[in-house]
Design goal:
The protein is of the alpha/beta class. The protein has 2 domains: 29-369 and 501-514 and 521-528, 3-Layer(aba) Sandwich (Alkaline Phosphatase, subunit A); 383-442 and 444-482, Gyrase A, domain 2, CATH 3.30.1360. Strands 7-10-9-8-13-3-14-21-4-22 form a 10-stranded mixed sheet, with helices on both faces. A hairpin with a 4-residue loop joins strand 5 (101-104) and strand 6.
Length: 555
């Protein structure tokens, strides 16, 4: 064992392999790089393995530590809670980010998880920077790194999605950057700073910005089409159409799509189209490397954190579904982005001087029509609006006229508590009637009351997953759980939300520093990532973290 380790404990891991877990070390990585790939299913690495290069995903797997049974331990499985949970080391029950959008009972309206109009956009004249992490109710990995170094470590996050930058960055980050879909600028919020660094301004004001060149480009296949053996044929009815296209087939002209997309033009979201192409990931990699260079990441004795979230994979999944060639090509190109990032870290920070973790914020379902037609599995697309109408009718018939439902999305139903109080009804009675109405609809497998979640502790199955996300202040009154492969989404592409394994099983990879190559098949959850990194750095866990670190062998 490396002499730098002062104390080590030999443990027999759940995977029945002998591991050495270092508890105290003299050295620490100079940088932590967290990579979250939006909507990445666990099996994508193995499905697309033969089409990957040697320096991206394969390097992370071959030279790093792979958790093969990595799961989300709560539902709903969506982006905001996913990013919050990975970095906070806890579930929505504690950190309070219960959904991307959710009903705020105090405000009486639906709110977005990172909206905060107390702050202004920095880097643009749009309102797209009015964000903050104030709804994140606990500290996270970024906060603890700041505190452990007495605020001398740098913490910076980047993504094309605002929530995917804001939530990992935590409460005391040096910066969080995301894409302004109005003008293609990298922007932030006045929560972090009143003025962009000069180097970011220079990127935004450059005469030949890479993003503008990408907006004129085509999305073409990386390999001959016959190499895409893990996907369906190119033209299928399960895929959405790119703007200006008659079929969902390669090549895709982004320039023509911009000209044809009147909706984005009218709403001032011209650059939004880049998000659904591999170039959305490219600009994130380029920005991440610029951060490393200009902010001197990993250049002193205080461990820095760079949070990198790749979101274009999510847009592709929603548009085309996991069976599509478009998704496979997106990951082949992402493999090269990760290789570029690793090579840059090797050059600027130094081999063995940084640690990477890679995971996903959720996985994703298969396209419902694909499941019916090619898998002979009963799957359907449902509409929450129609379900809400059915439930309203049932509640009106039972309790009298009124609007009883404040909000409902995919079975996450909030009741109109003011009306219930006005009518002198018991909340639990109305919750029970709502659950009964859910179960009268054949698309629902289960319905769970908020009152039951308040007074009981559930640890197994779908109830355990919902319990881990239940926050009495912000969570719904009733949770309707759709049947497997029933999705609240349109006929093309796919979505994610459920407690089923196709939404919860994600990759968890660790690479670099003193990590030994290896793998485990033991069950682990994404909330174990943050305490694992904290253990590497010999520092406190985030305030709401209830998970233990993964026992990873060190050199």
């Amino acid at each position: 064992m490396n002499v730098k380790k002062l104390l080590a404990t030999t443990v027999l891991s759940l995977g029945s392999t002998l591991s050495t877990f270092a508890q105290f070390t003299e050295d620490k990585p100079k940088a932590v790089v967290g990579i979250i790939v939006d909507q990445m299913k666990y099996d994508y690495i193995s499905r697309y393995w033969d089409n990957f290069g040697e320096d991206g995903f394969k390097k992370l797997v071959n030279d790093g530590y792979t958790v093969r049974n990595g799961q989300y331990n709560y539902a709903p499985t969506v982006t905001g809670p996913g990013h919050a949970s990975v970095y906070a080391g806890t579930s929505p029950a504690y950190h309070s980010i219960v959904n991307n959008h959710f009903w705020d009972r105090e405000m009486g309206k639906t709110v977005y998880c990172v909206d905060d109009k107390r702050y202004q956009t920095v880097g643009s004249d749009s309102k797209n920077g009015q964000k903050s992490p104030y709804r994140l109710a606990v500290t996270n990995l970024s906060d603890e790194i700041k505190w452990a170094s007495n605020f001398r470590s740098k913490v910076i996050a980047v993504s094309i999605k605002d929530r995917s930058a804001v939530l990992p960055a935590g409460h005391k980050a040096d910066a969080a950057y995301w894409l302004d879909e109005k003008n293609g600028n990298w922007i932030t919020s006045s929560f972090y700073t009143e003025k962009l660094p000069e180097w970011v301004t220079a990127l935004n004001e450059g005469k030949k910005r890479p993003i503008d060149e990408y907006m004129k480009s085509d999305w073409t296949l990386s390999l001959p089409i016959e190499k895409y053996t893990a996907s369906t044929e190119d033209d299928t009815p399960y895929e959405s159409l790119f703007p200006g296209m008659q079929t969902p087939t390669f090549p895709y002209s982004i320039k023509k799509a911009v000209a044809a997309d009147r909706v984005r033009a009218k709403t001032g979201k011209k650059y939004d189209i880049i998000k659904g192409t591999p170039y959305g990931n490219t600009i994130v990699t380029e920005m991440a490397m610029s951060i490393i260079d200009n902010e001197n990441i990993g250049q002193d004795n205080f461990t820095d954190l760079l949070a990198v979230s790749y979101s274009s994979t999510d847009y592709a999944g929603h548009a085309y579904g996991p069976q599509a060639i478009e998704v496979e090509d997106m990951y082949i190109k992402l493999d090269q982005e990760i290789a570029n990032l690793i090579n840059h870290l090797d050059e600027k920070v130094g081999k063995g001087q940084y640690v990477i973790f890679l995971t996903a914020d959720h996985a994703g379902a298969q396209n419902a029509a694909f499941m019916r037609e090619r898998m002979n599995f009963e799957a359907k697309n449902i509409k929450s609006k129609e379900d809400t109408e059915y439930i309203e009718k049932a509640l009106n018939a039972r309790f009298g006229e009124g609007k009883y439902v404040s909000s409902n999305y995919s079975g996450q139903l909030y009741l109109n508590r003011a009306l219930i109080k006005e009518k002198g009804l018991e909340l639990e009675e109305v919750q029970k009637a709502t659950a009964e109405a859910f179960m009268e609809m054949p698309q629902y497998a289960h319905a769970l009351l908020g009152k039951d979640l308040e007074r009981n502790e559930y640890t197994q199955g779908y109830k355990g997953l919902i319990y881990n996300a239940f926050n009495p202040r912000f969570s719904p009154d009733v949770f309707g759980v759709l049947r497997s492969h029933y999705v609240d989404y349109g006929p093309t592409g796919t979505t994610h939300f459920s407690p089923y394994k196709y939404d919860t099983h994600v990759p968890i990879l660790f690479y670099g520093w003193d990590i030994q190559a290896g793998e485990t098949h033991a069950p682990h959850t994404i909330t174990e990532i943050a305490p694992t990194i904290c253990s590497f750095l010999n520092m406190n866990y985030p305030s709401g973290c209830y998970s233990n670190p993964i026992l990873i062998p060190l050199k």
